[in-house]
TrEMBL record, chain A:
PANTHER family: SORTING NEXIN-4. The lineage of its organism: Eukaryota, Metazoa, Chordata, Craniata, Vertebrata. GO terms for molecular function: phosphatidylinositol-3-phosphate binding. This is SNX4 protein. Residues 12-139 form the PX domain. It comes from Galbula dea. The keyword Repeat does not apply. It comes from the Eukaryota. One of its GO terms (cellular component) is plasma membrane. SUPFAM superfamilies: PX domain. Keywords: Protein transport, Transport. Belongs to the sorting nexin family. SMART domains: PX.
From TrEMBL, chain B:
GO terms for cellular component: early endosome; phagophore assembly site. This is Sorting nexin-30. Residues 1-71 are annotated as: Disordered. Residues 1-10 have a biased composition (Pro residues).
Length: 402, 434
């Protein structure tokens, strides 16, 4: 990790700004632009701070970057972007993309994405990534010039289409299954958590009503009045406290969401391997059938049924010259095929090796991050409990003075 | 702080010191060693409040006899403790279900310990059912119309969901019935009422009930007040104020009741979601290797919070709401007494006016008008004294009730805090190198 970009460069997404412009079909649109600031990290800190470079990027450019990385590094579990649209909302959160809270959380998510890429041993070295951070204009053209879209396998879009692989790699099959389950369980967790947040909000807010009624009641009491009044104030404090508590919890939800999307990235790697394996098997199958054809033509025996064989039987056999020509073509194809198969095999082996290395790296990162997330969640709960104890103890004190 | 109503000086021969403490006898299995409490012992409120009993003394709950706090519990916790002698103790406990051919019902044991001369024996133990309490209350209203009679828990259970024979319902009712009798015991006039005496002592209450009006109190006369017919000229300021106060008071209590119910409802809905939330962590744990234990830990933790929340909601339903409702009923019955007072005053004013109109030059006022005047003055005096007593009790009751509510919430959060704090080490635990 010595060479990783994150160590050499400070990267932040420091601001978000609403912009209006014209889109591809010359219609006016509103979008949010994000300010990316970078600064070289000085090894000696003599108060000498390197100058800050900055440029603005919008979400669609981040998407372009990620697509490029996905295609260019198919064996890497590419860090995910924060969600495009607000999902798993509970009633108070807005599902509007322009909502300031949503924009703020997205800003943090985009910064997190850049940091993830910058600290990845392979991805951080990518030139396109570097120019995304540093090249103000013309970046889009540079990316498109790489021609990565051509490399993109359209079959990947058909997520659930099955390709019958005869000899699947068990590890990848298991991993794909795991990523499916992980996506399912985290989605479920996020959905229920949103409902829990909703209900908890309700419980706290209703207590605010005590504040009002205690105040009204205290007006008709003599000795009890002060105690009731001040207790009512604490009930108001209690009711108000839930807003900050739930806002903090959103960060936890965002951490879970990141791994929900990471699961998708993991699945993509498995899928790519699956397709690679499929192509390999298809190539091998094709080679085998060509060899067989060749043999049949050479020896004159027909082992398997073929339409050509039937037609030639019906309409007369070919001349020896014709047969020779065919054999030659086939032999060429076979040679080509064997070379292709060799390189495909090599490609596959390389893919498996590097993919598996990155998967191990990812697993460690995931375990570490999720543990940290659970700890911070527990800490949040502890803080909430302590606040609750404090408020009710204060209220009890007021009641005791009644 | 205002004191609890002072009982009339006891005509009994024994003082408290000579009599064994009611809770010290072996008649109840929860009792500990015999205690002779010193009435001079004034306890700091902070310790006493922890397991506060009822304002008039005998605590409802008994904890382990050995603990010092329970020892303090059994002693008087009121301000007028020193120099005061309590000579009547009543407790309601031991609910039992009776299944007969015609009906099924619950009876409660009513235990009395006293040194008063009005009672033949120092101790009584009888069984009573709700209708007996209801009968008592009606009799008290009839025979002591100038006084405020404490309320009974609601007679009928409206919601079909509530089981009349469930432990929770029976216990809630028992506490309310116990409070009812203790409030009467506390009252300097009501506690000497003939019907109350019979209620506490008679083996066969039904036989007494049948005798009806045959047994008239030797002390006072059974006074019946005419209801209705007279219009009141001017209500004395203090009673008008009490009336206004009660109106606003019961209104506010009604609001608090609704808020409390709403909170319980929201809490239960929150609980439903939590019950789904916890297990998902467990499912996730099943997918993982290194994260398996931490995730299971979180799942278990949430489960503990669910249990704590359930307990909180139960406590609020069983302890908080019934007392609120009791006070709403109390206010209602008090307003009725105020109306009666108005009627008595109106009758007097009308009779007085009638005499003035007759233009007879009698040197003295006719006796029946005099009687009316007496009635008005008695009623006003009784009512004023009862109102003061009620205000003090109300303050103590609500202080205890609201402190109890705060306590239950504190306990809930403490349980959750313990649960979450205990899994932090589990989450931070670094597995041994694989």
């Amino acid at each position: 990790m010595e060479d990783c970009l994150a160590k050499k460069m400070e990267i932040t997404v420091s601001e978000a700004e609403k912009r209006t412009g014209r889109n591809a079909v010359n219609m006016q649109e509103t979008y949010t632009a994000y300010l990316i600031e970078t600064r070289a990290v000085e090894s000696q800190s003599e108060g000498q701070c390197a100058p800050v470079d900055s440029l603005w990027r919008r979400y669609s450019e981040f998407e372009l970057l990620r697509n490029y990385l996905s295609v260019t590094y198919p064996h890497i579990v590419v860090p995910p972007l924060p969600e495009k649209r607000a999902d798993f909302v509970w009633h108070k959160l807005s599902a509007d993309n322009m909502d300031p809270d949503f924009v703020e959380r997205r800003r943090i998510g985009l910064e997190n994405f850049l940091l993830r890429v910058a600290s990845h041993p392979v991805l951080c070295q990518d030139k396109i990534f570097y120019s995304f951070l540093t090249q103000e204009g013309g970046w889009k053209e540079v990316v498109n010039e790489t021609g990565f879209q051509l490399k993109a396998d359209s079959r990947l879009k058909a997520l659930n289409a099955t390709f019958r692989v005869k000899n699947p790699d068990k590890r990848f099959t298991e991993l794909k299954h795991y990523s499916d389950e992980l996506q399912s369980v985290i989605s479920h967790l996020l959905r229920v958590r949103a409902r829990v947040a909703d209900r908890l909000y309700g419980v706290y807010k209703v207590h605010g009503n005590y504040g009002r009624v205690f105040s009204e009641w205290s007006a008709i009491e003599k000795e009890m009045g002060d105690g009731l009044q001040s207790a009512g104030h604490h009930m108001d404090v209690y009711a108000a406290s839930i807003d900050d508590i739930l806002e903090e919890e959103e960060h936890y939800a965002d951490q879970l969401k990141e791994y929900l999307f990471y699961a998708e990235a993991l699945r993509a790697v498995c899928r790519k391997h699956e397709l690679m394996q499929y192509d390999l098997e298809m190539a091998a199958q094709d080679l085998t059938s060509k060899k067989q054809q060749c043999e049949e033509l050479a020896t004159g025996t027909v082992r398997t049924f073929s339409l050509k064989g039937m037609t030639s039987k019906l309409f007369g056999q070919e001349t020896p010259e014709q047969r020779e020509a065919k054999i030659k073509v086939l032999e060429e194809q076979i040679q080509e095929g064997e070379e292709q198969l060799k390189s495909k095999n090599l490609e596959s082996r390389d893919f498996v090796k590097s993919a598996w290395a990155d998967i191990e790296r990812f697993k460690e990162q995931k375990n570490h991050d999720l543990k940290e997330a659970l700890i911070s969640y527990a800490v949040m709960q502890i803080s909430m409990c302590k606040k609750g104890i404090q408020v009710w103890t204060n209220a009890k004190e007021c009641f005791s003075k009644m | 702080a205002g004191g609890v109503p002072k009982p009339l000086p006891s005509s009994g021969p024994k003082s408290l010191r000579e009599m064994p403490h009611p809770l010290a006898t072996s008649s109840s299995e929860e009792m500990g060693p015999a205690l002779t409490p010193s009435p001079d012992l004034l306890l700091p409120r902070s310790i006493a409040d922890k397991d506060l009993g009822l304002p008039n003394g005998t605590p409802v709950d008994t904890s382990s006899p050995a603990s010092s706090s329970s020892l303090l519990n059994r002693l008087q916790l009121d301000d007028d403790l020193d120099g005061e002698t309590r000579d009547l103790f009543v407790t309601v406990d031991d609910p039992k279900k009776h299944v007969c051919t015609m009906e099924t019902y619950i009876t409660y044991r009513v235990t009395t310990k006293t040194t008063r001369a009005e009672f033949d024996l120092p101790e009584y133990s009888v069984r009573r059912r709700y209708q007996d309490f209801d009968w008592l209350r009606n009799k008290l209203e009839e025979s002591q119309p100038t006084h405020l009679i404490p309320p009974l828990p609601e007679k009928f259970v409206v919601k079909g969901v509530v089981d009349r024979f469930s432990e929770e319902f029976v216990e809630t009712r028992r506490k309310a019935l116990d409070k009812f009798l203790k409030r009467i015991t506390d009252h300097p006039v009501l506690s000497f009422n003939e019907h109350f005496n019979v209620f506490l002592t008679a083996k066969d209450l039904n036989a007494y009930k049948k005798q009806g009006m045959a047994l008239l109190s030797k002390v006072g006369e059974s006074v019946k007040y005419v209801t209705g017919g007279y219009k009141l000229r001017s209500r004395p300021l203090e009673f008008a104020a009490i009336g206004e106060y009660l109106d606003t008071f019961s209104l506010k209590l009604g609001t608090i009741d609704r808020i409390a119910q709403r909170i319980i409802k929201e809490q239960l809905e929150y609980l439903v979601e939590l019950r789904e939330y916890g297990p998902v962590y467990s499912t996730w744990g099943g997918l993982e290797v290194e994260l398996s234990e931490p995730l299971e830990g979180v799942s278990a933790c949430i489960g503990n919070c669910c249990t704590a929340l359930e307990e909180l909601s139960e406590d609020m339903t069983e302890d908080f709401l019934p007392v609120l409702r009791e006070y709403i009923l109390y206010s209602e019955s008090m307003k009725n007494v105020l109306k009666k007072r108005d009627q008595v005053q109106a009758e007097y004013e009308a009779k007085l006016e009638a005499v003035a109109l007759k233009k007879e030059d009698r040197p003295k006022v006719p006796t029946d008008v005099e009687k009316c005047q007496d009635r008005v003055e008695c009623f006003n005096a009784d009512l004023k004294a009862d109102m003061e007593r009620w205000q003090n009790n109300k303050r103590q009751d609500f202080r205890q009730l609201l402190m109890g509510m705060a306590d239950k919430n504190i306990q809930y959060y403490e349980k959750c805090l313990t649960a979450w704090e205990s899994i932090i080490p589990l989450l931070q635990d670094k597995p041994e190198t694989k």
